[in-house]
Amino acid sequence: MKYSIFCLILAIGLIQSCSVMETSEATHILNGKAYPATDAQNIEVFLQKPDKEYIIIGLVESRGMGVTTEKKDLELSMRALKNEAAKIGADALIINTSQQKLVQSDGSTERRISATAIRFN
After folding, report:
1. Could you give the C-alpha distances from 121 to 47, 89, 92, 93, 112, in angstroms and in order?
2. Which residues are within 8 A (CB) of 94 and not within 5 positions of it... i.e. 6 or more apart?
């Protein structure tokens, strides 16, 4: 009975530590005036300049670190990037760089993304 309780507590602790190790954050630099916030779910992402006319409103950078895969790192970083872009009123992002980096000697990685935040005319 004591062994079962110990295993249960250990399993719960491991699950909680995994979710704690997932992290993401983003920051921005404005190119001038601030705009009203937009909805992060509606932010478009481009790998090259879009055909529509736009103005550059700033630069947004993010990082995401999951505990499972590089795909999770990318997911966390993109979510943080879009949320930050929405805060400054962006309609879309043009990705400048996206890199997977080794961050710890145990093989942990994180995804870092830099993008230009734009607003359509």
Report:
1. 19, 13, 12, 14, 29
2. 46, 47, 48, 49, 50, 115, 116, 118
Domain boundaries, the chain: 22-120
Cα dihedral 101, 103, 106, 110 sign? negative
Distance CA 102, CA 111 (A): 9
Report the relative pairing of strands 109-120 and 92-102 from DSSP bridges: antiparallel
Tokens of 76: 């966390």
Q: Is the dihedral of CA 117, 84, 26, 69 positive or negative?
A: negative
pTM: 0.78
Q: Which CATH architecture has domain 22-120?
A: 2-Layer Sandwich (3.30)
The pLDDT tens digits of the residues spanning 28-74 come to 999 888 899 999 999 999 999 999 999 999 999 999 987 778 888 89
**Cα gap 50→3, rounded to integer Å:** 60
